[in-house]
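Action item from last week, closing it out:
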Amino acid sequence: MQQEDFDSIIVALQSPRIAIKDRYSSYIWANEEFLKDSGLESCEQILWLSDYDLPWVNQAGQLIKEDQDILCGRAVNVTSVHTIEVSHKNQNSIAMIKYPITSNEGIIIGVICLYWIDN
């Protein structure tokens, strides 16, 4: 592995994109890096949007299916790799992991999504 490859991996791991979806796969929160990739500037803008409303519309069906696998209890977590368009500009390969969010009673109420761009 070249030093610049190693450096780009370290940088990518330090800035994960994080978003939270409700039980309907609608976004309710995202960090700044995720918002940039979405082409948005604030959490208010992403509120209640789905993957069909964002630059990666072509992968929306698969991304929402992954959410539903977690929300319905068919998967404890989902790890996947996608090629998505970010900021309506270019395509990037991403490594994504999703986990359930549960209430105090143990009921699954949402999904937390984390991904890293493979530069």
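Closing note: The first strand starts at residue 17 and ends at 22.
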